Structures are given as C-alpha cells and as structure tokens.
Amino acid sequence: SNPSILILPGDGIGPEVMAEVRKVIDWYGAKRDLAFDVSEDLVGGAAYDKHGVPLADETMAKAQEVDAVLLGAVGGPKYDVLDFSVKPERGLLRLRKEMDLFANLRPAQCFDALADFSSLKKDVVAGLDIMIVRELTSGVYFGEPRGIFEEGNERVGINTQRYTESEIERAARAAFELAMKRNKKLCSMEKANVMESGILWREVVTRVGEEYPEVELSHMYADNGAMQLVRAPKQFDVIVTDNLFGDILSDCAAMLTGSLGMLPSASLGAPMANGRPKAMYEPVHGSAPDIAGQGKANPIACILSFAMALRYSFDQGDEATRLETAIEKVLADGVRTADLMGPEGGTPVSTSEMGDKIIEALDAS
Ligand code: NAI
Ligand code: MG
C-alpha cells in the first residue's frame, strides 16, 4: 500500500499554504508514480470550532497510525480569549507529546537567489545547507526540581538540567541516522567544561558514534558553536544539541538565511513497526493572521517541510532534492511572494501562483 500522510492545515494561512503542498503531493502521484494515501483533519482553532477541543481524540489516533503528519499552523486572535486548556497550540503540544517527538530538526538552508536577505555577508551564507537536531522532550525545560521557592528571606527560581543516558542516546541516534542520509558529518554541542549533563552528553554521543564509523564526529562547546555559526556556518553539516542550546542555536541559524516564509522543520520520534520514525513536518512560521485570507502567504516553508518528509520519512532523497531544486529555480527566475520582495520592489506573486510556478519547474525537471 502507499505511504500515508495526515494533513492538518490548521488556522490562518495554514490552509492556504497547505493547498500548495497538495498540488506538489498530487504531482508526485501523477508524474513520478509516487502516490500517497492522504487524509485531512482539523487542528487548532478549526478543531475547537467543530469539536470544542484543539485536537479531537480520533485525530490524535490517526496521527499515531500514519507514516507522516504534515501540519500548517495554528492560532489566531479569535482564539486568544480561550482558556489555556483549549488554546490552539495545545493541539500541537498534544501531538508532540503523545507521538513522543524527541528530535526536532531545523535546517538552515540558503537559496543563492536570496543570499542578499541574510544579515551576514553573502559569501558567508551562499550555498549554506546545515541541519540542527535539537532534543525536544527533556533537559532544563522539564527537569525536576523546578519552581520558585522561599529560601530564607527571599525567593529562588529553580530549573534543573537533567538528561538520562537513554534520552541522550535516542537523540544522538536520530542525529547519526540523519548524518548518514546527508554528508556524514556531525558536530555535537554541549558545555562539558562546566556541566555534568554535558559530560554525560559527550560520553554517550561518542559511544553511539562507534556504531557509525562512517560519520565524522566532532564536539564543540555550545558558546563557541554560537560564534562559529555566525562566523563560518558552512563548516557544519549536522549539529546535535540539547533542548535549551538547541532552542537558541536553531533560532540563530534560522536567521542566517532570511525569511520566516522559507523555514521548514521536522519533529521525529522512535521508529515504528515499519522502520519509519514517528514524524511531524511543519513550517516554522505561525498562522500569520495579518495576511491570512489574502493570498499573500509564502507556501515555500510548508513545501520544504514536505521535501523533508520525502527525505526523512519516505527515503526519497533524490525526489526531495528535485523539489528543492525546483524551488531554487523559481527563486532564481525572480518569482517572489510579498515577504521576499527586496527594497528594489517589483510585483509579488500570490500563494497559488508560487505553487503553480513550482509545479512548472517540477514538470521541467
Ligand atoms: P507568525 O509566524 O504567524 O507571523 C510573523 C510575521 O511573519 C507576520 O508578519 C506574518 O505575516 C509573517 N509570515 C509568517 N509566515 C509567513 C509566510 N508563510 N509568508 C509570508 N509571511 C509570513 O507569528 P505571530 O504573528 O507571532 O503569530 C501569529 C499566530 O500564529 C499566533 O496565534 C501564534 O500563537 C501562532 N503561531 C503558531 C505557530 C505554529 O502553529 N507552529 C508558531 C508560531 C506562532
Ligand atoms: Mg525559540
């Protein structure tokens, strides 16, 4: 049977950008004999409007069964007044938690045509293609004890950086598997010089690395890593790091390349019975209520998220490259949604025109 995909468009521009992903999925079925069983359901505010909850139990069950979930974005001003327990983002959090998506993949990829958008010099970022793997379900955001406590005559705020060997091991394994699908180069970042969890992190990553002799493994203190990411990002291929450092380093890396409308992401969990990892793919951006319903949204982040699904869930690395190359071609031709317009101006294309141009480039590939 065909690999299965659950599409959760969500709110705001989510459905608009997802419609363009549907065109791409359909193209693969029609032109590359790569058909998917696609189902669609509600998440976020859209699910709340229908079910009174941001993710229905049946939708959660479906997400657990499919080979990959593609999510648009959730949220919007209409839902800001809701109780925390039914806020749109709770739908997203439930998916991440119940699917146990412990590895968050954030690429920083610079399309040459957009290199001028970077806050760095063009030659520092042109051709950049790196991937940060952030541990997502443990570390200092979750460790106990945590809280604000009375201590003598003042209060103390406490969070605990805590990592078990198995938590480090599964994140490391996800990163090595990725490195094997890319350029077999992995850099692990921690602060083993001042943190016990960092010492253990380095030890476990090194041990897992013995199972991947083809991957060139290096270690770097995370503060130096931040510096190196801005100084010479092309020295990296895959970076693996903990939840806190990964939060900061991935935001930093994202801005090496420019617009929010261009950034995809993936969150992976443990391998399922068929060997594929539990997986959810989504653009980094939100529901963009300021431009929703106007045909202005850039669908590329969402389409690149599908390219990641091709590569990391469906073992279709060549087809993922085909799609990325088609996007590169369209950008090189000067086709731009409004968020990609430079100061020199020009006429932006609409969301669906951008999707159509990408399909044309796929046809020509
Ligand atoms: P946002 O990412 O939705 O928008 C930030 C700015 O970037 C806006 O000016 C928007 O127009 C622009 N932008 C975002 N994506 C774009 C695209 N594809 N093409 C062109 N322009 C784009 O973040 P914001 O405004 O902070 O949040 C809006 C809503 O989205 C909130 O309800 C927030 O909670 C939710 N949100 C949801 C996320 C998710 O579903 N994963 C992530 C971040 C925010
Ligand atoms: Mg962040």
UniProtKB/TrEMBL annotation:
Residue numbers binding NAD(+): 76-89, 286-298
EC number(s) given by UniProt: 1.1.1.85
Keywords: Amino-acid biosynthesis, Branched-chain amino acid biosynthesis, Cytoplasm, Leucine biosynthesis, Magnesium, Manganese, Metal-binding, NAD, Oxidoreductase
Location in or out of the cell: Cytoplasm
Transmembrane feature ranges: none
UniProt remark on cofactor binding: Binds 1 Mg(2+) or Mn(2+) ion per subunit.
Binding site for substrate: R96, R106, R134, D223
Record carries keyword Translocase: no
Magnesium recorded as keyword: yes
Molecular functions per Gene Ontology: 3-isopropylmalate dehydrogenase activity
Important for catalysis (site feature) positions: Y141, K191
Gene3D superfamilies in UniProt: Isopropylmalate Dehydrogenase
Every Isopropylmalate dehydrogenase-like domain range: 4-358
Domain of life: Bacteria
Cofactor(s) required for function per UniProt: Mg(2+); Mn(2+)
Pfam families linked: Iso_dh
Binding, Mg(2+): D223, D247, D251
Pathway given in the UniProt record: Amino-acid biosynthesis; L-leucine biosynthesis; L-leucine from 3-methyl-2-oxobutanoate: step 3/4
Biological role: Catalyzes the oxidation of 3-carboxy-2-hydroxy-4-methylpentanoate (3-isopropylmalate) to 3-carboxy-4-methyl-2-oxopentanoate. The product decarboxylates to 4-methyl-2 oxopentanoate.
NCBIfam families xrefs: leuB
Assembly behavior: Homodimer.
Protein name: 3-isopropylmalate dehydrogenase
